[in-house]
Amino acid sequence: MSSLLETKIAARQHALREQGLLRQRKVLGVDHTLNTNASTSSPRFVFEGRAYVNFSSNDYLGLSRVPELAEALHLGAQTYGVGSGASPLVTGYSDAHLALERKLCDLTGHEAALLFCSGFSANTALMKTLFDQHDIVVADKLVHASIIDGLQDSGAQLKRFLHNSLESAERLLARHHASALITESVFSMDGDCAPIAQLSALCRQHHAWLVVDDAHGFAVLDGYHNAEAAKLIDVQVVTFGKALGCQGAAVLGSQALIDFLVSNAREYIYSTALSPANAALALAATQYSTAHPELQQQLLENIKLFKRLCREANVPLLGSDTAIQPLIIGDALQTLQVAEKLRAAGIWVGAIRPPTVPVGSARLRITLTAAHAAEDIAACVAQLAQVLSLVGVPLVTERQATDEHR
Ligand SMILES: Cc1ncc(COP(=O)(O)O)c(C=O)c1O
Question: Which of 129, 222, 362, 400 could make a disulfide contact with 353, Cβ separation 3.0–4.6 Å?
Fold first, then answer.
């Protein structure tokens, strides 16, 4: 007889499979024919013996494949060893960590920083340490799962405002004596940007902190990696696994906030520190991205090219101007079907389904990077147009798509 847990697992997996929501990992290999110079070839990988162009990664500047950064990681490991060996409050905090924290403060204008092994742990640690059952927190409807999980753990009362709506945010701030408003700079699944300056003004008016998850904005396009950031944003979470092409994250804010987190954030106190080699790598990646503004420029050009070609082919995008270009299909199974057909043409695009996005808004999440070659972008759009008409997805206008799914 099967145990209670075996029965539960089997039933839940069965239900997910029926709804097209089962998640499975795919083992990807390196395309050894690839030129490792990030600026001359589109990102590719091999799956089951076949090469695919990757339109699914958050490596927006192509930094994960830059030889100088591989060298920086190697040098970091030779200098400090391959791991940190302890939590930061024991012996896991080194001058490599301090140097990265200082650099991040210089880039954003914040007083102090605290490093985490991932953006997910930075967000959950921040939320559950900063807030408690006495706080009311106002957050955009589409903030990341790590923020929601952390807020749930904190016991704070959560009030959600309509996505990117200043009116809705203001209504909640006026009605509740909120401690903070939380949003993302660039939304991970929609690719649109929050009105940070206006939200900041609202927060000042209502004596609430503005907390911004800058995972998809930091180091890419005109995000908040400038000395003005701290004037608008009280707490900024930046991650290294996206535009910086490596791993880890930081919470940036006042010295008082960071001291408070050092003494109270359980994820920080009871976890092995980010390796110093990874800290050295992230520092080198920030320096590299600053020294190579042409990568941001190339990314912008690739985004423009993709959008123009989609417009010409009537491929219905959501209207984003960033590297994240969603195409809403609605039904989860049909979204998988479209992604499969694109794969048959050698193009790998993420099929994003609930609960990552709201029910009825399953989508392709196409991401562009500075490393994509123009001919691969053109091939991606041509295949998209063909596959969408093949499977009967209506080619609607941008405006319709935006209205329906907000
Ligand atoms: C908006 C946002 N915040 C935080 C995270 C978590 O960052 P990390 O991948 O470093 O854990 C993600 C990652 O998907 C994200 O999209």
Answer: 362
Q: From CA 55, how far away is CA 350, in angstroms rounded?
A: 8
Closest CA to 288 of 33, 110, 34, 59: 59
Mean pLDDT confidence for 169-196: 97
The pLDDT of residue 73 is: 98
- Average pLDDT in the chain: 93
User: Ligand 1 mean position to 392 CA, how many Å?
Assistant: 33
Pick the atom of ligand 1 nearest to 146's CA: 4
| Same domain assignment for residues 287 and 297 | no
Query: Residue 90's domain spans which residues?
Result: 67-291
In this structure, the answer to whether residues 167 and 251 fall within a common structural domain is: yes
13 lies in some domain: no
Question: 35: pLDDT confidence band, cut at 50, 70 and 90?
Answer: low
In a domain, 106, yes or no: yes
Is it the case that residue 34 has pLDDT exceeding 90?
Answer: no
What are the strands, taking DSSP E only, across 188-333? 209-213, 235-239, 249-253, 324-330
Ligand 1, atom 7, lies closest to the CA of 119
Atom of ligand 1 nearest to the CA of 241: 10
